[in-house]
Amino acid sequence: MFDEQKKSKSLTPIVISNLSLLLGKTKILDKIKCKIHNKSIIAVLGPNGAGKSLFLKTINGLTPVESGKIKFNSKEINYQIRKEIALVFQKPTLLRRTVLENMQFVLEKKNKLSNLEIMNHLQKVGLDTYKHKPARLLSGGEQQRLSLARALLINPSLLLLDEPTANLDPYSLNLIEEIILDENKKGKTIILTTHDMGQAKRLAKEILFFDKGKLLEQTKAINFFAKPKTKEAQNYINGKILL
Amino acid sequence: MILESFTHAFDLVLTLDKDFFEILLLSMKVSFLSLLLSCLMGLPLGTYLAIKNFWGRDTVLIMFNAMMGLPPVVVGLIVYLLISRSGPFGWLGVLYTPTAMIIAQMILITPIVVSLTAQIIEEINEEYKDLFKSLVISSHKALIACLYDARYSILTVILAGFGRAVSEVGAVIIVGGNIDHLTRVMTTTIALETSKGNLSLALALGIILLLIALTINLILISLKTRAKRRMYV
Ligand SMILES: Nc1ncnc2c1ncn2[C@@H]1O[C@H](COP(=O)(O)OP(=O)(O)OP(=O)(O)O)[C@@H](O)[C@H]1O
Ligand SMILES: [Mg+2]
């Protein structure tokens, strides 16, 4: 417990200043400026193509930034910090191996203890009976759950989840939301993207609203859903509710 | 007449005819050795080309790709010019030896191994690289993982290389000279015996060659379906 607290303290607050990302000739992220507090759950919202996924990838250090800085507890990203971040991709990337082998891959050593831990995590996401199945034969939702379990296995202090429940049935959705809240209670800072307004309301303490690569709003979740400041956010919420 | 040749062919196989097995053995030796050497060079080179981005990389890849279609007789001719008495490597004295045949076949197979390996590894690396970067996996471990997970595809490349080596005739006949008891392999014997009208030996060897090709293809197909069934390709 003490260990976890120490760890999460080392990454937050995350201060992002003037962050821009250029891919080809298009500006994907445009002068993003925000602060992410310790042990928060943040929902990144915005229409398709707003730049949410690339925002998460940039925090994870996967894309070279054009300008701006991301500081984790006033330190720039380095090997130690990267080890403390886990990203669950929007499109699950699984190795051409069994479920169990996919989990084993992220652990440094293989032994009885680690296998026990793996089985614990698989059980959490309801995949323990599939351990010998080739991972890429799992259904879309199962693959997503496996990606999440794999990310949790490395016990990161910052968890980035890109639409973690997009393909899930109602039962699994509940399961995953409970896991997210639980991991947050244990001290993890969580940033997730979603198009599910209900989910954002249930989980998020804060909302980051993106549109066309710009961060238009950063507000407390209650305030955002009660009265979004920008017209774009209003339209986005309304569109979603009407659907 | 054809039927007669067939029975004679099977006789040769069943009676373990000495000359016949000498030819078969040399064929296998030359093909295996050239394949082995090609893989020793081609697999690391192809992998390197797949994952490293350096100036001129595309040109090198295009070159190897083009070399996949080299006509064997032309390769034979070039190797011949290089190792003949008056050629720059004439002092090696390897013309009309199995070594010359292995060299010629290496030139034919290596581009196949390099190009296909590069394609396979590039594809899997593209698929995995964000994940590996996110997981902060060392590039060494990442490379091993790519090679391991591409093992089925790589095996098919190796088998394809062997298929090309064992069935090739144009290059080995030029640099090997088809000398009895020395450089005579299955394909060159078939060519010679057919032209002499000695169809039974030609047919016997042809049948063996066909069986080898068939076996290779069966292995290829079963590997592919096995891998596909688990989505490992
Ligand atoms: N490699 C790339 N090169 C150029 N443009 C890209 C590249 N990757 C993504 N984009 C563009 O960047 C924009 C933002 O993409 P991103 O994946 O972050 O959107 P998103 O907000 O996650 O959308 P969604 O809700 O559909 O997941 C999109 O317009 C996309 O077309
Ligand atoms: Mg996205």
Classified in CATH, the superfamily of chain A is: P-loop containing nucleotide triphosphate hydrolases
SSE ordering of chain A:
HEEEHEEHEHHHEHEHEEHH
Task: Report how far apart the termini of chain B are.
Answer: 47 Å
Strand order of the largest sheet of chain A: 6-7-8-3-9-10
Q: What is the number of beta strands of chain A?
A: 10
CATH structural fold name of chain B: MetI-like fold
Terminal-residue CA separation of chain A? 43 Å
| Number of E-state strands of chain B | 0
**CATH architecture annotation name of chain A:** 3-Layer(aba) Sandwich
| Count of alpha and pi helical runs of chain B | 10
Q: How would you characterize this protein structure?
A:
The complex is a heterodimer of chains A (243) and B (233). With 243 residues, chain A is an alpha/beta fold. Chain A has one domain (4-237): Rossmann fold (3-Layer(aba) Sandwich). Chain A contains ten helices and ten strands. Chain A has helices spanning 2-11, 52-59, 79-83, 99-106, 112-124, 140-153, 170-185, 197-203, 221-226, 231-242, and strands at 14-23, 26-36, 41-45, 67-72, 75-76, 85-88, 158-162, 189-193, 206-211, 214-220. In chain A, the strands form two sheets. A six-stranded mixed beta sheet of chain A has the order 6-7-8-3-9-10, sandwiched between helices. In chain A, strands 2-1-4-5 form a four-stranded antiparallel beta sheet, covered by helices on one side. In chain A, a hairpin with a 2-residue loop joins strand 4 and strand 5 (75-76). In chain A, helix 4 (99-106) runs parallel beside helix 6 (140-153) and helix 5 packs across helix 6. The longest helix of chain A has 16 residues, at 170-185. The termini of chain A are far apart. Mean pLDDT of chain A is 90; it is low at 1-9. In chain B, helix 1 (2-14) crosses helix 10 (199-229), helix 5 (98-134) packs across helix 6 (139-149) and helix 7 (151-167) runs antiparallel to helix 10. Chain B has one domain: MetI-like (MetI-like fold, Orthogonal Bundle). Chain B starts with a helix and ends with a helix. By secondary structure, chain B is mostly helical. In chain B, 35% of the residues are buried. The longest helix of chain B has 37 residues, at 98-134. Chain B has ten helices and no strands. The A-B interface holds A 57, 60-62, 79, 82-83, 85-87, 89, 93, 95-97, 105-106, 134, 136-137, 154 and B 124, 127-128, 130-131, 133-136, 145, 149, 230-233. Bound molecules: adenosine-5'-triphosphate and magnesium ion. Magnesium ion binds at residues 52-53, 90, 162 of chain A.
